[in-house]
Amino acid sequence: MTEATKAGLEGIVAGKTSISTVGKEGLDLTYRGYSIHDLAKKATFEEVIFLLLHGELPTLTQLNEFIDQLMSWRSLPPELQTVLKLIPKDCNPMDVLRTGCSMLGTLEPEKSSSLQLTIAKRLLAIMPSMLLFWYQYHMGKGSIETSSESEKTIAAHILHLLYGHPASPSQIRALDVALILHAEHEFNASTFTCRVITSTLSDFYSAITGGICALRGPLHGGADEAAMEQIIQFKSADEAEVGIKSMLTKKEKIMGFGHRVYKYGDPRSDIIKEWAKKLSDEPSKKNLFAIAERIEEVMFREKHLYPNVDFYSALTYHFLGIPTFLFTPLFVISRTSGWCAHIFEQRANNRLIRPIAEYVGPLPKPFIPIEERN
Ligand code: SDX
Known about the structure:
Layout: E1 20-21, E2 30-31, E3 34-35, H1 36-42, H2 45-54, H3 60-72, H4 78-86, H5 93-107, H6 116-141, H7 154-163, H8 169-181, H9 189-199, H10 204-215, H11 223-232, H12 237-249, H13 267-279, H14 283-303, H15 309-319, H16 327-348
Antiparallel strand pairs: 1-2, 2-3
S-citryldethia Coenzyme A binds near residues 8, 259 and 308.
């Protein structure tokens, strides 16, 4: 009889990885040994992608070559543009990336696993194009050009496609840091989904599509959108205090709080909170920031729960003028870098992932013919 496993595989070591760790008791997150604090302060998202995919930070020459490659792979094949236009305006944009990734897999199939690095870079480059092409098409902008060579980085490319003009350096850096913070996080639900699919020797696009599907849920990636909806419903910090307490009394979840592995706070939250504060440069934004801080205070006082990466990321995206329903797709664009690294790692030392279950069903019993069943 196996020892009963805690629900949700809590605390179960389900494999080895050299890509990242949340540290002892989740006290610090590192990617390939580099602290998230150093990466968020001193690196760019492109350096972090290179680090995750190749295991080491790039030299300046390697970084420039890497950026040029990503820039050259932003274009959308005509067949993919046709499919994106057919996706309804009111669908969940996570379904745009799920469908777009699957469609790209039919147009540019993975003929050999030796192509995995190329496919990884193509997906990282094209996802912003897919998302914003669909978004702007349904905003009445027609078929926008997505392979613009004017913006060197993914953060700058995303904001330019969204705004229709270049973003400011501080707006670009705020999004760049958010993409760094969301890039990788050990065996979270969506990453583990990618590894399970990879372990069956399925293809690259299937694994990434599975990751997108898992991240869509509000208990995982979808929390950032839900958190924004919760923050924006309050007009003042005092009103938020009353509202959150009432929700807690009704045992409702406050999105953007709590975490399976971080019991003493998510190290990413303090970093992105600083950016939300920097961007709250006018009265209405300052009021929203004050509401968020009060929610944080109430959650600690009442439940001893801390904000996770999603809470202040939501506010940062909102202050960047990003529509709420595009928040989780941004998480996909970032986390695709971590997912790709885990697919490489799983393939390099693969064994089918197949745990066992603790059976709690009926004892063996004789078959009853249908005429005797009442
Ligand atoms: C991400 O895993 C990762 O690494 C994920 C991620 C990544 O980078 O990939 O970090 C990204 O997904 C962050 C998490 C985003 N999700 C949310 O913000 C959704 C709200 N959070 C909760 O649903 C919850 O905290 C989870 C899902 C994040 C973690 O849930 P657990 O570990 O299963 O904890 P639990 O639900 O068993 O809660 C334990 C207790 C319960 O109280 P009791 O019933 O024991 O009295 O804490 C309470 C819960 O009710 N609780 C909350 C709460 N989170 C936990 N109560 C109110 N609001 C919350 N948000």
